[in-house]
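Q: A reviewer asked whether we had any structural model of the full assembly, not just the individual parts. We don't, so I'm hoping you can provide one. Inputs are below.
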Amino acid sequence: MPEILDGHALISAIAYFGGSFDPVHEGHLQTALELLDRFPFERLTLLPAARSPLKDDGAAFAHRLAMLQLAVSCHARLQVDDRESRRPPPSYTIDTLTELRQELGTDQPLVFILGLDSLLTLNQWHRWRELTDFAHLLVVTRPGCSPDFVGEIAEWLAAHRVNDPRMLECAPNGRILLAETTPHAVSSTAIRAALHQGAAPETQPLPASVAGYIRHNQLYGVSPPHESRTDF
Ligand code: ATP
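A: Here is a predicted structure for the entire assembly that you could use as a starting point for your response.
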């Protein structure tokens, strides 16, 4: 017998974690793994943005995708979806959620994961109020960000917010849950800045495979690996 809440059978949700992943770092990965432990997601998929409409520098999509694939390769329950690169620009989350809803059907609970910093500026996103017409939002802790909501975001949040995680499983979309996750004071911006200033990728909060990829491909101003000298 399925568990029933509020008269509805609970159905495992499918979760997508969107971002630039420029590069993917331990904050993304540890948060995703924690959510897989805490929530009954059928799967959790990392969804790189083709090019964020709000950011215009950084590594090419193919590099960001390759780093994500390396990062998830040792985590069986994490996947990567490259669909945003296959659509003509600009890349909007609302278009991806619309597409996913068409693929998943009307009843499947779908959760879009984002950090608290993203929620605080969500009203800059294209058709932001409609995001919950297609998915639930699961908002995770981001160090340096307080849940101080004001104005239209505060009003919208109040209309959609739930506190019981099971509420994400008894409806396909429409709810927002703020989860207290373990804080990881890591950002792609800080990593890119450190690398541009000469820090070794291996010293950054990155999976070793991603650090190696950055070094090998000389991303973010990193110099190439030392070649062994045989000519002396
Ligand atoms: P940037 O510094 O370039 O803005 P970022 O580190 O925020 O990058 P993104 O790829 O933009 O990484 O983030 C994707 C999503 O992951 C966003 O919703 C963001 O809030 C969230 N996120 C990023 N880093 C963390 C972290 N350390 N802890 C929790 N959530 C995070």
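A: Points you may want to mention in the reply: The chain has seven helices and nine strands. Residues 19-22, 27-28, 31, 114-115, 117-118, 140, 142, 184, 186-189 surround adenosine-5'-triphosphate (CB under 6 Å).
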